Amino acid sequence: MPGSKHHILRQNKMMTYEWYLPKMAEHLPGVRFPGNRWNPVEGMLPNGMVTFNLYHFLEINKQKETFVCIGIHEGDPTWKKKYSLWPWGSCDKLVPSDIVFNPEEWIKLTRNLYNWTEEYGRFAASSWESVANEEMWQARMKTPFFIFDLAESANLPADVKARLYTHAYNLYKELVYSQKAHPVNWHKNYALACERRLRLAGRDADPEALLSETIRHFHLYAQKARDDPQRADILGALKHLRKELRSLRNRKTA
Protein backbone atom coordinates (compact mmCIF):
# COMPACT_ATOMS: atom_id res chain seq x y z
CA MET A 1 0.00 0.00 0.00
CA PRO A 2 1.62 3.29 -1.08
CA GLY A 3 2.54 5.49 1.86
CA SER A 4 1.83 2.75 4.40
CA LYS A 5 3.94 2.86 7.55
CA HIS A 6 3.65 -0.86 8.19
CA HIS A 7 3.73 -4.15 6.36
CA ILE A 8 2.77 -7.71 7.19
CA LEU A 9 4.75 -10.90 6.68
CA ARG A 10 2.13 -13.60 6.28
CA GLN A 11 4.24 -16.53 5.12
CA ASN A 12 7.87 -15.69 4.55
CA LYS A 13 8.29 -19.05 2.81
CA MET A 14 6.65 -17.40 -0.19
CA MET A 15 9.73 -15.19 -0.49
CA THR A 16 11.75 -18.27 -1.47
CA TYR A 17 9.97 -18.44 -4.82
CA GLU A 18 11.64 -16.76 -7.77
CA TRP A 19 8.43 -15.13 -9.00
CA TYR A 20 7.14 -13.87 -5.65
CA LEU A 21 9.24 -10.80 -4.84
CA PRO A 22 8.97 -9.13 -8.26
CA LYS A 23 5.19 -9.52 -8.08
CA MET A 24 4.95 -8.26 -4.50
CA ALA A 25 7.32 -5.35 -5.06
CA GLU A 26 4.89 -3.91 -7.61
CA HIS A 27 2.27 -3.54 -4.88
CA LEU A 28 4.62 -2.52 -2.05
CA PRO A 29 6.58 0.46 -3.36
CA GLY A 30 7.62 1.51 0.14
CA VAL A 31 9.06 -1.87 1.11
CA ARG A 32 12.67 -2.67 0.27
CA PHE A 33 13.88 -6.18 -0.48
CA PRO A 34 17.66 -6.60 -0.01
CA GLY A 35 17.89 -9.33 -2.62
CA ASN A 36 15.96 -11.50 -5.02
CA ARG A 37 14.94 -14.31 -2.72
CA TRP A 38 14.66 -15.00 1.01
CA ASN A 39 17.01 -17.59 2.50
CA PRO A 40 18.41 -17.96 6.04
CA VAL A 41 21.89 -18.07 4.49
CA GLU A 42 22.76 -14.92 2.60
CA GLY A 43 24.83 -15.07 -0.56
CA MET A 44 24.65 -15.41 -4.31
CA LEU A 45 23.09 -18.40 -6.02
CA PRO A 46 24.66 -20.00 -9.12
CA ASN A 47 22.05 -18.25 -11.27
CA GLY A 48 23.14 -14.84 -9.95
CA MET A 49 20.22 -14.32 -7.57
CA VAL A 50 21.05 -12.69 -4.24
CA THR A 51 19.51 -14.17 -1.08
CA PHE A 52 18.68 -12.31 2.12
CA ASN A 53 17.58 -13.25 5.63
CA LEU A 54 14.85 -11.75 7.81
CA TYR A 55 17.27 -9.73 9.91
CA HIS A 56 18.59 -7.95 6.82
CA PHE A 57 15.04 -7.39 5.58
CA LEU A 58 14.02 -5.82 8.90
CA GLU A 59 17.12 -3.67 9.14
CA ILE A 60 16.58 -1.96 5.79
CA ASN A 61 12.89 -1.43 6.54
CA LYS A 62 13.31 0.13 9.98
CA GLN A 63 11.13 3.06 9.00
CA LYS A 64 8.14 0.73 8.87
CA GLU A 65 6.32 -1.30 11.49
CA THR A 66 6.40 -5.01 10.68
CA PHE A 67 3.79 -7.55 11.72
CA VAL A 68 3.94 -11.32 11.39
CA CYS A 69 0.93 -13.53 10.82
CA ILE A 70 0.89 -17.35 10.91
CA GLY A 71 4.32 -17.35 12.53
CA ILE A 72 7.91 -16.87 11.40
CA HIS A 73 9.77 -19.63 9.60
CA GLU A 74 11.73 -21.54 12.24
CA GLY A 75 14.62 -22.02 9.84
CA ASP A 76 15.57 -18.34 10.00
CA PRO A 77 16.24 -17.16 13.57
CA THR A 78 18.38 -14.21 12.43
CA TRP A 79 15.69 -11.69 13.44
CA LYS A 80 16.33 -12.60 17.08
CA LYS A 81 19.61 -10.66 16.99
CA LYS A 82 17.83 -7.35 17.53
CA TYR A 83 14.08 -8.01 17.53
CA SER A 84 11.37 -9.49 19.71
CA LEU A 85 7.82 -10.63 18.97
CA TRP A 86 5.04 -8.89 20.88
CA PRO A 87 1.41 -10.04 20.58
CA TRP A 88 -0.82 -8.04 18.26
CA GLY A 89 -4.27 -9.57 17.99
CA SER A 90 -4.02 -12.76 15.97
CA CYS A 91 -0.59 -11.66 14.70
CA ASP A 92 2.65 -10.47 16.30
CA LYS A 93 4.63 -7.29 15.97
CA LEU A 94 8.39 -7.33 15.45
CA VAL A 95 9.82 -4.83 17.92
CA PRO A 96 13.47 -3.80 18.39
CA SER A 97 14.77 -5.63 21.47
CA ASP A 98 16.10 -2.45 23.06
CA ILE A 99 12.54 -1.13 23.51
CA VAL A 100 11.31 -1.78 27.05
CA PHE A 101 7.96 -3.54 27.25
CA ASN A 102 5.34 -1.51 29.11
CA PRO A 103 2.45 -3.86 29.97
CA GLU A 104 -0.05 -1.12 30.77
CA GLU A 105 0.54 0.66 27.47
CA TRP A 106 0.52 -2.56 25.46
CA ILE A 107 -2.70 -3.82 27.03
CA LYS A 108 -4.40 -0.52 26.27
CA LEU A 109 -3.04 -0.45 22.72
CA THR A 110 -4.09 -3.99 21.81
CA ARG A 111 -7.29 -4.44 23.84
CA ASN A 112 -9.70 -3.71 20.98
CA LEU A 113 -7.82 -5.36 18.12
CA TYR A 114 -9.72 -8.63 18.34
CA ASN A 115 -13.01 -8.81 16.43
CA TRP A 116 -13.56 -12.53 15.75
CA THR A 117 -17.27 -13.32 16.15
CA GLU A 118 -17.61 -17.06 15.45
CA GLU A 119 -18.75 -19.06 18.47
CA TYR A 120 -16.27 -21.50 19.93
CA GLY A 121 -16.91 -25.12 19.00
CA ARG A 122 -19.56 -24.38 16.38
CA PHE A 123 -17.76 -26.27 13.59
CA ALA A 124 -17.18 -30.01 13.19
CA ALA A 125 -13.89 -30.95 14.85
CA SER A 126 -12.49 -32.46 11.63
CA SER A 127 -13.20 -29.40 9.46
CA TRP A 128 -10.75 -26.73 8.38
CA GLU A 129 -13.20 -24.17 9.76
CA SER A 130 -12.70 -25.70 13.20
CA VAL A 131 -8.92 -25.39 12.88
CA ALA A 132 -9.19 -21.73 11.86
CA ASN A 133 -11.73 -20.99 14.58
CA GLU A 134 -9.52 -22.62 17.21
CA GLU A 135 -6.54 -20.55 16.10
CA MET A 136 -8.51 -17.32 16.30
CA TRP A 137 -9.90 -18.15 19.73
CA GLN A 138 -6.45 -19.01 21.03
CA ALA A 139 -5.30 -15.62 19.75
CA ARG A 140 -7.54 -13.97 22.36
CA MET A 141 -5.17 -15.05 25.12
CA LYS A 142 -1.88 -14.19 23.43
CA THR A 143 -1.38 -11.01 25.44
CA PRO A 144 -1.90 -12.52 28.93
CA PHE A 145 0.16 -15.56 27.89
CA PHE A 146 2.98 -13.28 26.74
CA ILE A 147 2.85 -11.21 29.93
CA PHE A 148 2.74 -14.32 32.14
CA ASP A 149 5.71 -15.77 30.27
CA LEU A 150 7.65 -12.55 30.85
CA ALA A 151 6.85 -12.74 34.56
CA GLU A 152 8.32 -16.26 34.67
CA SER A 153 11.74 -14.86 33.73
CA ALA A 154 14.13 -15.51 36.60
CA ASN A 155 16.13 -12.30 36.17
CA LEU A 156 13.29 -9.85 36.87
CA PRO A 157 12.99 -7.85 40.11
CA ALA A 158 10.23 -9.02 42.45
CA ASP A 159 8.12 -5.88 42.00
CA VAL A 160 8.21 -6.23 38.21
CA LYS A 161 7.21 -9.89 38.45
CA ALA A 162 4.31 -8.97 40.71
CA ARG A 163 3.15 -6.31 38.28
CA LEU A 164 3.27 -8.70 35.32
CA TYR A 165 1.58 -11.59 37.15
CA THR A 166 -1.19 -9.26 38.27
CA HIS A 167 -1.83 -8.08 34.72
CA ALA A 168 -1.83 -11.65 33.41
CA TYR A 169 -4.25 -12.72 36.15
CA ASN A 170 -6.66 -9.86 35.44
CA LEU A 171 -6.62 -10.46 31.68
CA TYR A 172 -7.12 -14.22 32.02
CA LYS A 173 -9.96 -13.73 34.49
CA GLU A 174 -11.68 -11.30 32.14
CA LEU A 175 -11.38 -13.77 29.27
CA VAL A 176 -12.54 -16.85 31.14
CA TYR A 177 -15.59 -15.20 32.67
CA SER A 178 -16.67 -13.28 29.59
CA GLN A 179 -17.16 -16.38 27.41
CA LYS A 180 -19.67 -19.20 27.86
CA ALA A 181 -17.54 -21.58 25.81
CA HIS A 182 -13.81 -21.32 25.23
CA PRO A 183 -10.70 -23.49 24.67
CA VAL A 184 -10.09 -25.86 27.57
CA ASN A 185 -6.50 -24.71 28.09
CA TRP A 186 -7.82 -21.33 29.23
CA HIS A 187 -8.79 -23.03 32.50
CA LYS A 188 -5.22 -24.24 33.00
CA ASN A 189 -3.67 -20.89 32.15
CA TYR A 190 -6.05 -18.99 34.41
CA ALA A 191 -5.44 -21.46 37.25
CA LEU A 192 -1.69 -20.92 36.93
CA ALA A 193 -2.19 -17.16 36.97
CA CYS A 194 -4.35 -17.48 40.10
CA GLU A 195 -1.68 -19.57 41.80
CA ARG A 196 1.06 -17.06 40.99
CA ARG A 197 -1.17 -14.22 42.16
CA LEU A 198 -1.77 -16.13 45.39
CA ARG A 199 1.96 -16.47 46.07
CA LEU A 200 2.46 -12.73 45.66
CA ALA A 201 0.55 -12.23 48.91
CA GLY A 202 -0.34 -8.67 48.01
CA ARG A 203 -2.55 -6.53 50.18
CA ASP A 204 -5.41 -6.62 47.70
CA ALA A 205 -5.26 -10.39 47.24
CA ASP A 206 -7.82 -12.70 48.87
CA PRO A 207 -5.97 -15.99 49.53
CA GLU A 208 -9.14 -18.03 50.01
CA ALA A 209 -10.72 -16.73 46.79
CA LEU A 210 -7.53 -17.26 44.81
CA LEU A 211 -7.06 -20.78 46.16
CA SER A 212 -10.67 -21.60 45.34
CA GLU A 213 -10.27 -20.27 41.80
CA THR A 214 -7.02 -22.17 41.30
CA ILE A 215 -8.64 -25.42 42.44
CA ARG A 216 -11.81 -24.89 40.42
CA HIS A 217 -10.09 -24.21 37.13
CA PHE A 218 -7.39 -26.86 37.50
CA HIS A 219 -10.24 -29.29 38.22
CA LEU A 220 -12.21 -28.17 35.15
CA TYR A 221 -9.11 -28.52 33.01
CA ALA A 222 -8.24 -31.98 34.34
CA GLN A 223 -11.81 -33.13 33.69
CA LYS A 224 -11.73 -32.07 30.05
CA ALA A 225 -8.07 -32.55 29.06
CA ARG A 226 -7.58 -36.21 29.86
CA ASP A 227 -4.82 -36.61 27.28
CA ASP A 228 -2.57 -33.94 28.82
CA PRO A 229 0.74 -35.63 29.80
CA GLN A 230 0.85 -33.33 32.86
CA ARG A 231 -2.60 -34.39 34.06
CA ALA A 232 -1.23 -36.62 36.85
CA ASP A 233 0.88 -33.72 38.14
CA ILE A 234 -2.14 -31.42 38.04
CA LEU A 235 -4.23 -33.92 40.00
CA GLY A 236 -1.42 -34.19 42.53
CA ALA A 237 -1.26 -30.41 42.82
CA LEU A 238 -5.02 -30.31 43.34
CA LYS A 239 -4.73 -32.56 46.41
CA HIS A 240 -2.14 -30.23 47.89
CA LEU A 241 -4.17 -27.12 47.06
CA ARG A 242 -7.35 -28.55 48.61
CA LYS A 243 -5.42 -29.38 51.76
CA GLU A 244 -4.03 -25.84 51.80
CA LEU A 245 -7.53 -24.40 51.40
CA ARG A 246 -8.90 -26.51 54.29
CA SER A 247 -6.02 -25.39 56.48
CA LEU A 248 -6.65 -21.75 55.61
CA ARG A 249 -10.35 -22.02 56.42
CA ASN A 250 -9.62 -23.80 59.70
CA ARG A 251 -7.28 -21.00 60.75
CA LYS A 252 -9.95 -18.43 59.95
CA THR A 253 -12.55 -20.18 62.10
CA ALA A 254 -10.23 -21.09 64.97
TrEMBL record:
* InterPro entries named among the record's database cross-references: GT117_domain-containing
Q: Which organism is it from?
A: Oryctolagus cuniculus (Rabbit)
Q: Which protein is depicted?
A: Transmembrane protein 260
What is the organism lineage in this UniProt record?
Eukaryota, Metazoa, Chordata, Craniata, Vertebrata
